[in-house]
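Reviewers of the previous submission asked for a worked example of the structure-prediction workflow described in the proposal, so we include one complete record here. The input consisted solely of the amino acid sequence. No template or homolog information was supplied to the procedure at any stage.
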Amino acid sequence: MKTIVKYVVLKSSDYQLGTPLFQQELQADALYFDQIPAIIQHQNLEFKVKSKELNRKQTAEEQDPTQHILVKVIAI
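From that input alone, the workflow returned the following C-alpha cells.
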C-alpha cells in the first residue's frame, strides 16, 4: 500500500520544535509501522524515535489504502 512517512523534530539544538525533518513516500505493507528503526540518521545527525502515529485511509474511489505515519524524533 502507499505509505507516507513524515519525520518531525521534537527537540534539537539545530531545529525548532515541530520542524519537519523529511518525508518519505514508498510502497510498503501494513507491518512497516513496526519496522521503523529506533534510531534515524539524517544529514550526518542521529535522532531517536520518541513516538509514532499511524493513520490508514481508503476512499471509495481508490482500491489501494494509504497509510500515513508520523514519527516524532529527538536529537541525540
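Helices lie at 32-35. We consider this example representative of the routine output the project will generate in years two and three.
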